[in-house]
């Protein structure tokens, strides 16, 4: 962004100030707003007038710098031929710096404009460390920006509106606040967003702003102190404030650390604090309850314990399984799904992240791939049974995600009990082992390897077993080609399983 | 009963829930519109009470009648407390009135279980609906979800609320069974899982109806059972990973009037709760894992913060050269926060980092000194034993009182 930006909120009607002429004459440059400053600073910089040679004067509450060091007449003289030189090009100011300057300009300090000009000057000299906290001026700049932001935040937080009686007309709500920096304009925007079409007014010692429901109006000071309005809503607030406090945790230091003391005098709740603290310190501290609540008579609820428990679906026995520890970190056990007397049963490894939440096998990305493979093999998901060797999701935290972890052999063995139950009810003729965990579970052996069995169907306990990759293996392999092959192998295995289920025998 | 009396009882009963934040909602504004309320994503604390905690939301119970008998809870059915119940309109009116006076940023509504989980949840949803649809309230709404309620009701809650929470309350299934007999870890997990699925769906399909844009959170009570910090943090880590929680809140158990024998008579040290929050922050934002902070079972140290404790236990990483170290490792140095770690990395792109830079960045020099090397500084205490360093850097000389001496002896 160039320094010749929008004129900002400068007073357009005022006669333009010739900052360069004033500086040469040794006069202070009057600045009322950031827009004024920006215009003046641009003219001074293109004329290469160093910060030591400029005096600034600001608005009264800026601290009125009549007595500040810059005004003691010790301004270094400017070179006589200054105006003969061609002007320098206006510096390019990055948006971030411009925003910082604009923020810092709200900071009430007698030398604020002079300091901001020094920052600009150093920037155009190429001193980028002006943006770093480790630079002395940079630290001050950031400190000013932060203090202004802090003040804005405090005003958002600790300003209290009082409601005026409806017959008094607009504004319906009034507030009084004493900000330490010039933050009223931006804070007014905040309340305009918050209050919709409801009218309000905020008074401060040096300015007032009012919202009529659609437009903001800024004027000079209208109020002298906190709004003198009776508001019955305040009693409710004080009750809430006292009741939400937990005497057992008394820690007034933290409270004082957060709300700076200058805000207390205008905060309605501040009036009840001393009493709350002394009561808490004098005994109520034993329990968390407010004294006045504790003194009321209470009731117990007459209901028999057995009637109190909600009616829930009984957890399945699988949900109650404690044969290994995997239940502990999983959401739920995921049982197999499918028709009862399916001829084909697909056995995967274990539920994944999505399956664990949904309670259904093969619904995540691996499930989608399996669906596609089944489509290709013309296998109807509604005619088969799909399950996993292990019924609870085993995982490890990785930051905020769950990283799938292969179940250990002892978990596979423990969970085989459930696969066995499913085999007994479904009585499939063909088992498709998707991956090595499934194969190990089916054969109940930790030492079998996939490559001995892949593509070679064999008989086990009276049924055919077809071995192929797990769909998530196909998702994991890096090359497109290997992935293609893996999917083709799965499709082939599914086709083979169907032929075996139809009574064909492998050649 | 007058509104003000109900407020006294039902705010008093709500203060044991630690969640308070009002951040994470999408930006909303009422400028020039009917209705009221704005959110800017950040949330504000509007006041602080003498317990040092902030007030940012109107935090109340719809009612403190409750048919459950959770031992740690002041509202359990066997508790002899004054009872009250707001009407839907009363909660709505209080929220709007408080909001207009700038006391609060929104509503945090919870409730005892009355009649049934579904009935209670319906009432909570009715209040949120009335605020949003009738009053066009655009402030923040956080609803406590009743885990046993019908998932359809939880869906509805997510349409009106910015945040949903389901409290796990205790870190182990055994403790829940013992201290909250009507609750059930299984249904709590299912409710959280259901909320996460809905959040995932919304994320994958931006045009789907909105659902709890500020996410979900939970709370664990500390010191009501014998679980140690390692157990608590491991549970938290599990919950963060499983349900993508925005926050796990830790609430130090507060002694309650006529406390049942099943829970302790004294609160745990408040500092313990504080250390858990510090550790939780290290888990969420610094990439620490629980087994780094607490490799064996036990509690976090009370005399020093968990990051300093980690550094003292892992001296092989130190002193760390700020001009060379991995950015992620710089943030692991005690006394350097995430922001300063970033600033240091930015600065060293321009020039060498020097000792005085750190003071200007307002690093805690006392903490950082033994752990860093800069262009012009090497710690003299590099070889000082960790024990001695720890004594010199302790926050407060405070001994942890065993809460459950008999269990620890066993
Ligand atoms: S993984 Fe299997 S054996 Fe282990 S707890 Fe779950 S159902 Fe039981």
TrEMBL record, chain A:
Record protein name field: Type-4 uracil-DNA glycosylase
NCBIfam families the UniProt entry points to: SAM_7_link_chp, UDG_fam4, UDG_fam_dom
Family: Belongs to the uracil-DNA glycosylase (UDG) superfamily. Type 4 (UDGa) family.
Domain of life: Bacteria
SUPFAM superfamilies (UniProt xref): Uracil-DNA glycosylase-like (SSF52141)
Keywords: 4Fe-4S, DNA damage, DNA repair, Hydrolase, Iron, Iron-sulfur, Metal-binding
Organism name: Pseudoduganella plicata
Domain Uracil-DNA glycosylase-like: 335-495
One GO BP: DNA repair
Alphabetized InterPro entries for the sequence: DNA_repair_put, DUF4130, UDG_Type-4/5, Ura-DNA_glyco_family4, Uracil-DNA_glycosylase-like, Uracil-DNA_glycosylase-like_sf
Record-linked Gene3D superfamilies: Uracil-DNA glycosylase-like domain (3.40.470.10)
Single GO term (MF): deaminated base DNA N-glycosylase activity
Automatic annotation (TrEMBL), chain B:
Region (Disordered): 381-410
Annotated CDD domains: Radical_SAM
Coiled-coil parts of chain: none
Keyword S-adenosyl-L-methionine: yes
Keyword list, A-Z: Iron, Iron-sulfur, Metal-binding, S-adenosyl-L-methionine
Matches recorded under InterPro entries: Aldolase_TIM, DNA_rSAM_put, Endo/Exo/Phosphatase_dom_1, rSAM, rSAM_sf, RuvA_2-like
Domain Radical SAM core: 61-188
Keyword S-adenosyl-L-methionine listed: yes
Molecular function terms from GO: catalytic activity; iron-sulfur cluster binding; metal ion binding
Cofactor (UniProt): [4Fe-4S] cluster
PANTHER family, per database record: ENDONUCLEASE/EXONUCLEASE/PHOSPHATASE FAMILY DOMAIN-CONTAINING PROTEIN 1, TYPE II SECRETION SYSTEM PROTEIN K
Protein name, per record: DNA modification/repair radical SAM protein
């Amino acid at each position: 962004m160039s320094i010749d930006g929008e004129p900002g909120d400068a007073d357009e009607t005022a006669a333009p100030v010739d900052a360069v002429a004033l500086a040469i004459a040794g006069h202070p440059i009057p600045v009322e707003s950031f827009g004024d400053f920006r215009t003046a600073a641009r003219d001074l910089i293109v004329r290469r007038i160093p910060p030591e040679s400029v005096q600034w004067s600001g608005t009264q509450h800026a601290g009125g710098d009549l007595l500040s060091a810059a005004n003691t007449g010790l301004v270094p003289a400017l070179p006589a031929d200054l105006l003969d030189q061609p002007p320098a090009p206006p510096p390019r100011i990055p948006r971030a710096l411009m925003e910082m300057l604009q923020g810092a300009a709200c900071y009430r300090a007698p030398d604020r404009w002079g300091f901001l000009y020094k920052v600009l000057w150093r920037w155009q000299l190429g001193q980028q460390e002006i943006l770093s906290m480790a630079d002395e001026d940079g630290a001050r700049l950031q400190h000013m920006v932060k203090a202004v932001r802090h003040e804005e935040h405090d005003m958002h937080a600790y300003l209290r509106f009082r409601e005026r009686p409806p017959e008094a007309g607009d504004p319906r709500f009034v507030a009084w606040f004493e900000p330490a920096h010039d933050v009223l304009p931006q804070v007014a925007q905040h309340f305009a967003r918050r209050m919709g079409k409801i009218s309000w007014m905020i008074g401060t010692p040096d300015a007032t702003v009012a919202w009529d429901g659609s437009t903001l109006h800024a004027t000079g000071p209208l109020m002298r102190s906190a709004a003198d309005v009776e508001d019955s809503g305040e009693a409710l607030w004080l009750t809430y404030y006292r009741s939400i406090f937990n005497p057992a945790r008394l820690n007034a230091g933290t409270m004082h650390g957060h709300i700076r003391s200058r805000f207390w005098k205008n905060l309605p709740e501040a009036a009840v604090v001393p009493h709350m603290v002394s009561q808490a310190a004098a005994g109520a501290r034993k329990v968390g309850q407010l004294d006045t609540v504790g003194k009321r008579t209470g009731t117990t609820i007459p209901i028999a314990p057995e009637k109190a428990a909600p009616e829930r679906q009984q957890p399945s026995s699988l949900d109650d399984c404690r044969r290994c520890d995997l239940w502990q970190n999983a959401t739920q056990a995921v049982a197999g799904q499918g028709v009862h007397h399916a001829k084909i049963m697909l056995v995967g490894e274990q539920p994944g992240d999505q399956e664990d939440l949904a309670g259904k096998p093969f619904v995540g990305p691996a499930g989608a791939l399996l669906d596609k493979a089944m489509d290709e093999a013309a296998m109807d998901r509604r005619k088969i049974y799909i399950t996993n060797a292990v019924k609870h999701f085993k995982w490890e935290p990785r930051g905020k995600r769950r990283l799938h972890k292969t179940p250990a052999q002892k978990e596979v063995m423990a969970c085989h009990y459930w696969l066995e139950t499913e085999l007994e009810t479904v009585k499939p003729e063909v088992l498709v082992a998707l991956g090595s965990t499934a194969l190990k579970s089916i054969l109940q052996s930790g030492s079998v390897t996939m490559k001995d069995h892949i593509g070679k169907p064999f008989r086990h306990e009276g049924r055919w077993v077809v071995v192929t990759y797990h769909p998530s293996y196909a998702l994991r392999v890096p090359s497109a080609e290997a992935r293609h092959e893996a999917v083709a192998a799965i499709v082939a295995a599914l086709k083979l399983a169907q032929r075996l289920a139809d009574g064909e025998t492998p050649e | 009963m007058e509104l003000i009396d109900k407020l006294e009882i039902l705010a008093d009963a709500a203060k044991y829930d630690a969640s308070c934040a009002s951040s994470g909602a999408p930006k909303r504004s009422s400028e020039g519109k009917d209705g009221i309320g704005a959110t800017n994503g950040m949330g504000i604390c509007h006041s602080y009470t003498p317990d040092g905690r902030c007030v940012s939301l109107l935090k109340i119970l719809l009612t403190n009648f409750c048919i459950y008998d959770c031992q740690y809870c002041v509202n359990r059915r066997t508790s002899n407390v004054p009872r009250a119940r707001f009407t839907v309109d009363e909660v709505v009116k209080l929220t709007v009135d408080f909001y207009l006076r700038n006391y609060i940023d929104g509503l945090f509504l919870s409730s005892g279980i009355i009649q049934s989980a579904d009935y209670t949840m319906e009432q909570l949803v009715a209040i949120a609906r009335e605020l949003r649809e009738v009053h066009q309230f655009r402030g923040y709404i956080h609803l406590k979800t009743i885990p046993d309620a019908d998932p359809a009701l939880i869906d509805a809650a997510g349409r009106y609320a910015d945040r949903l929470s389901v409290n796990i309350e205790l870190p182990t299934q055994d403790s829940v069974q013992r201290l909250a007999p009507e609750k059930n870890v299984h249904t709590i997990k299912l409710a959280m899982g259901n909320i996460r699925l809905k959040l995932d769906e919304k994320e994958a399909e931006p045009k789907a109806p909105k659902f709890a844009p500020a996410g979900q959170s939970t709370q664990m009570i500390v010191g009501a059972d014998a679980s140690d910090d390692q157990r608590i943090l491991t549970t938290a880590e599990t919950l963060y990973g499983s349900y993508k929680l925005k926050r796990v809140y830790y609430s130090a158990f507060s002694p309650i009037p006529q406390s049942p024998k099943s829970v302790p008579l004294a609160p745990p040290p408040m500092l313990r709760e504080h250390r858990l929050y510090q550790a939780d922050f290290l888990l969420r934002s610094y990439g620490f894992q629980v087994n780094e902070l607490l490799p064996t079972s036990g509690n976090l140290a009370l005399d020093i913060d968990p990051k300093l404790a980690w550094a003292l236990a892992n001296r092989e990483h130190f002193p760390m050269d700020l001009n060379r170290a991995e950015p992620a490792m710089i943030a692991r140095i005690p006394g350097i926060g995430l922001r300063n770690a970033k600033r240091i990395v930015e600065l060293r792109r321009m020039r060498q980092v020097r000792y005085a830079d750190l003071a200007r960045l307002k690093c805690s020099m006392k903490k950082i000194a033994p752990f860093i090397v800069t262009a012009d500084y090497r710690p003299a205490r590099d070889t000082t034993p960790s024990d001695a360093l720890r004594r010199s850097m302790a926050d407060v000389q405070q001994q942890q009182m065993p809460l459950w001496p008999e269990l620890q002896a066993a």
